[in-house]
Amino acid sequence: MKKINLLFTVLALLVLVVAPVSVLAQETLTIQGSSTVLPIAQKAAEVYMEKNSSVDISVRGGGSGNGIAALIDGAVDIADASRFVKQTEVEAAVGNGIYPVPHRVAMDGIAVVINPANSVTELSLEDLMNIYTGKVTNWSEFGGPDQEIVVISRDSSSGTFEVFNELVLEGNRLTQGALLQASNGAVAGVIADTEGAIGYVGLGYLSDSLKAVKVSGVLPSNATVASGEYPIARPLFMFTNGWPEGLTSQFINFILSAEGQKIVKEQGFVPLH
């Protein structure tokens, strides 16, 4: 009986000793930023953690600007961004001893979407500029219903907004009547619920509740983005502080691997190879 009690005591002590060691051995990685890159980062993190039980990866959205700001502050290991880092951000980073290094992980098209009830099927880049600057306010101007255009846009912290502003608005001011949304998902939700609405989302957010329109005669798709035909396209990035090492490097290499690029494609984006 004494031997049994001694055995249980030894086992209990082993649990107390081993448990803290396993906790200490847990590697962590924090990722924050673009809601466009979010589905890629989340799925890749899920798969990577399944393969590596000692790794804990935290993934958050919040927009490209917020992700890069968190990297500048040293609060994250990886900043997801659907645009390139700005010169002002580089200067702020260097001032903090942070050196942002870009890693292109995928390509994406910014799909222009409307409510499925809308009969319009195609818009030109000029049409989009006129809509988003407030020069045209009724769908009848484009052969659609006599209905007010409800302009939906991402907010200024969004990399998607930055690219759309550059490629479509060409730096012109967004109409003051635009309803600003914090994420691709939020834009998709408003479009699906509002018959007169128009907005834009990453390819990975297209669904049956949205109607993608042709832009200058080309529908957004993996094929038209990869070929360069679709006019509103951009690379997607993950930024690190300097050249990555350790777990950060291993995770980015995983996304760039054949398996990682398969995840990119499965999430509705355009793989690099």
TrEMBL record:
One GO process term, biological-process aspect: phosphate ion transport
GO CC, one annotated term: plasma membrane
Domain (PBP): residue spans on this chain: 26-259
Location within or outside the cell: Cell membrane
GO MF entry, a single one: phosphate ion binding
Keywords associated with the record: Cell membrane, Lipoprotein, Membrane, Palmitate, Phosphate transport, Signal, Transport
Residues of the signal peptide: 1-25
SUPFAM superfamilies cross-referenced by the UniProt entry: Periplasmic binding protein-like II (SSF53850)
Membrane topology summary: Lipid-anchor
Pfam annotation, one family: PBP_like_2
CDD domains: PBP2_phosphate_like_1
Domain of life from the UniProt record: Bacteria
Assembly behavior: The complex is composed of two ATP-binding proteins (PstB), two transmembrane proteins (PstC and PstA) and a solute-binding protein (PstS).
Assigned protein family: Belongs to the PstS family.
Entry-linked PANTHER family: PERIPLASMIC PHOSPHATE BINDING COMPONENT OF PHOSPHATE ABC TRANSPORTER, PHOSPHATE-BINDING PROTEIN PSTS
Reported function: Involved in the system for phosphate transport across the cytoplasmic membrane.
Identification of the protein by name: Phosphate-binding protein
Organism expressing this protein natively: Halanaerobium salsuginis
Classification of source organism: Bacteria, Bacillati, Bacillota, Clostridia, Halanaerobiales
